[in-house]
Amino acid sequence: MNPHAKQAVAPETKAVDADVAQAFDDFISAFEAYKLTNDQRLAEIERRGGADVITEEKVARIDQTLDEQKRALDRLLVKRGRPELGGGGGREPSAARQAFDAYVRRGEEAGLRHGELKAMSSGSDPDGGYLVPDELDTEIGRRLSDLSPIRSIATVRQVSGAVLKKPFALDGMATGWVGETDARAQTATPQLAELQFPTMELYAMPAATASLIEDGALDIETWIAAEVEAAFAEQEGAAFVAGDGVNKPRGFLDYPSVDDAAWSWGNLGHIATGSAGAFGADPSDRLVDLIYALKAGHRQNARFVMNRKTQAQIRKFKDADGNYLWMPPAGAGQAASLMGFPVVEAEDMPDIAADSASIAFGDFRRGYLVVDRTGVRILRDPYSAKPYVLFYTTKRVGGGVQNFEAIKLLKFAA
Length: 414
Description:
Order of helices and strands: HHHHEHHEEEEEHHEEHHEHEEEEHEEEE
CATH class of the largest domain: Alpha Beta
Structural class: alpha+beta
């Protein structure tokens, strides 16, 4: 192997890595400054019964800086994680990829029809589109995992049909202790619940001029993936959190919630803070109650889910020993932690308000299921918006709670 072969992309890779390292260092420095200023604020409150206005403003500014630097770090990490699609490692593109490229650039369908890649929709056979080659399908899926936080922590299943049906045993098999020669009573029939996860159509329609598309220097697959990734991730992220299940996945916050002491299957259990729209007198106690509302088997892989505004409030909290409950990531690409559990930022989680369920805690790998129907489809439309060419890009996605024991909510209610 040529020892210089890998050095062709090394400068760019090193530049991105250096940017990530610098962004992470800036984030940690900002958090240290935040702790010092917030400690000063708390000392002023304890000494004088209230914090100085200047100190409060300084804490707010540093808190905003922390959020901005975390966003910048997240963007750099996504950029670093993107695989190269254009070069293909010097290999000749597959026949399917060449045919797809000809279709997207020039509208030539012969290669796709010859390869039997036509993909008709279930509603109207003549109006279908073409299955994208595997490279692009994988790329969109990867980027959605990076940009859609719930997808990245949930179980993701690929299906070929329109609906995934999943049986779930509500109780285990009946068991008991018996002597060696004692009669064995017949065990009870396990109670099963059937959960259904229909897939719904999600679409994006990026547009480009014909001259841009025909430019051979443009990596058309990367361009389409970049155009649709943000649109798909934004819609998915909102649906996985609070979607109503009508033409979209059902979010975990759309399911009914009950006080955890009265929990039953089909509901999510919640812990009330004891104060409407606030954490109450001792926030750490409420968070401990939420953590231990989960069974031990679910706590092992559990994480907190909240938006940035909620996380900003939690950054100020300390335990009885004066230690901050929220801790920054240990390294670039890792998650912040709250009381030892990872924190996932999901901007579609509600802000803290009266009766809001602004914090979720659980094992989302067991608790939430994302269903992807195999394949992303693209229909080229050069007629509807001349002189632009539209690329009607669709995928079918479903989702919902699959284990109601595995997710608990913190409800800001009296």
